[in-house]
Amino acid sequence: MAVYTQVPAEEIDAFLTRYDAGRLVSAKGIAEGVENSNYLLETTGADGSGHRYILTLYEKRVDEADLPFFMDLLDHLGARGCLVPRFIADRSGQRLQQLAGRPACLIEFLTGISVTEPTPAQTRAAGAALGELHRAAEGFAGKRPNALDKAGWHDLARKCGADFDQIAPGLAARVTEELAYLDAHWPADLPRSVIHADLFPDNVLMLGDRVTGLIDFYFSCTDVRAYDLAITHSAWTFSHDGATFFGDRAKALGAGYAQAHGLTDAERAAFPVLCRGAALRFLLTRAYDWINTPADALVTRKDPLAYLRRLDFYANADAADLLGA
Amino acid sequence: MAVYTQVPAEEIDAFLTRYDAGRLVSAKGIAEGVENSNYLLETTGADGSGHRYILTLYEKRVDEADLPFFMDLLDHLGARGCLVPRFIADRSGQRLQQLAGRPACLIEFLTGISVTEPTPAQTRAAGAALGELHRAAEGFAGKRPNALDKAGWHDLARKCGADFDQIAPGLAARVTEELAYLDAHWPADLPRSVIHADLFPDNVLMLGDRVTGLIDFYFSCTDVRAYDLAITHSAWTFSHDGATFFGDRAKALGAGYAQAHGLTDAERAAFPVLCRGAALRFLLTRAYDWINTPADALVTRKDPLAYLRRLDFYANADAADLLGA
């Protein structure tokens, strides 16, 4: 959530000469994204009418070897009508560049704002956009393992160890117990596909009740498709602290997704387990960051217990509670 | 250089209804400014044609009581043709608002980029823009004391005390000696006016060799007018580390300033002393921040010695060296 690599404006202007993008007229470092450095650029445009772009420099958290997967995915989705920011090729066809010693890409800018307190109508639109994404992803040949799958959760839990109990007494035991439950109940043969894996309201651009963009695909990977809806459910249907479940949003999410894609009976039956997995995944990454970030750091630590509350809710819910009848 | 106060997009959209600004279509937190939180907004515009604004929330470093001074100054300068970002009044005429518990203002967005390695032509344009600012400032009634005047330097030096020598051996004695020199030689009766007091390349927006905006007036105050040119000189005419003086830029700065305003003989005679003061002022604030910022903090510490090198240069220069014959 900061600009880690400062790039002189002159260098950005020179960089843009590789593209049919016109000359730079404004460059602002923006506080956004998963530990990348991002600039919002304005250029004269190839035709002088003005154009905006996002310039992303990849810092250590994104592996350069994964970038072709993300680029090909967004090309595939964009060609099938999904509102996703495409990576822009330079005049020689190159999308991945180097700038200020970092891998760097010029990316489409999309308008829209990210809501903080989604309404049911907005949640329905997000559900529909996720369904459309899953439909458009069919036939995409790229594969990328999910580093935060169940094996990844076990890994994170081991790294946190006894430190969980610094966050809340008894949390270490609760995590161990939940992992055992998920090992026993995680569905083995549900349809898999490319998933977004991080479709929080932050990553959905909207104008009013309309989705104008899905962004930040840097967690996208190949995994159980309905698990993507479970992640989205955990992100859109609770108060931020996880203490309040909004049934109206959840019903709207389910209806929006069903309109564009829908769940099989097996997916629906497994949905509460998938939601428990989603809640545990964010509980674990937040707990890991909590334990490893000094309390006085400039980075805001997100409360892991907000996901423990969701986990508790999911452990006592059935599919009808979570998605409507 | 971060967004300290996160404002939900819905709140920004609601905030904009006070203005004739249209509806919000994009909001990006930008990493800019003197410890304020800044958002680059795009709206539909009152007429639907699209418009951009800067939304600034004032954090602790800017005193709310100073905001009317800054607002009136930019109105005064803007009305006299200076390219400065004006504070925008809402429909009731109010410019200072509250948002997310902070004083907040909607401000004009100006295009242009900040150069990192100015050319002589760009430095000349910056000098001319400073001269025009000084001309336009004539007749401005507002007053604001300079907290970083000579008394302020003594204050900072006392606070740093023996810690200077952590930065470089002998630095404490060097600062004491320089303060004594400046106490004895600081000019008493040069013309005073409102000055920008921080006209680094960061704070000048340009397109090519043309200035499109002067920004970040939050250090502006009433002080010796030619001292503003000395600050600008220290910021534009050296390599970043202070090791190299660029005579061609310095000559261009002096020529640009002379074209728009000019120095009196007394100002020119005092110019080397004013430059020593400018170099000491940035040496002191950087040293204070260096001593008080942990080495591993996310904030980049700026090297105080880059200004010690400038100070050493100025101590051996005359006005002709610094501004051309």
From TrEMBL, chains A, B:
MF term (GO), any: homoserine kinase activity
EC number: 2.7.1.39
Keywords: Amino-acid biosynthesis, ATP-binding, Kinase, Nucleotide-binding, Threonine biosynthesis, Transferase
Entry-linked InterPro entries: Aminoglycoside_PTrfase, Homoserine_kinase_II, Kinase-like_dom_sf, Pseudomonas-type_ThrB
Catalytic activity, reaction form: L-homoserine + ATP = O-phospho-L-homoserine + ADP + H(+)
This protein's record includes keyword Transferase: yes
SUPFAM superfamilies, sorted: Protein kinase-like (PK-like) (SSF56112)
Pathway membership, UniProt: Amino-acid biosynthesis; L-threonine biosynthesis; L-threonine from L-aspartate: step 4/5
Enzyme class: transferase
Gene3D superfamilies: 3.90.1200.10, Phosphorylase Kinase, domain 1
Annotated Aminoglycoside phosphotransferase domain residues: 27-262
Family according to the record: Belongs to the pseudomonas-type ThrB family.
PANTHER family: AMINOGLYCOSIDE PHOSPHOTRANSFERASE DOMAIN-CONTAINING PROTEIN, AMINOGLYCOSIDE PHOSPHOTRANSFERASE DOMAIN-CONTAINING PROTEIN-RELATED
Name by which UniProt lists this protein: Homoserine kinase
Organism: Sphingobium xenophagum
Name of the gene: thrB
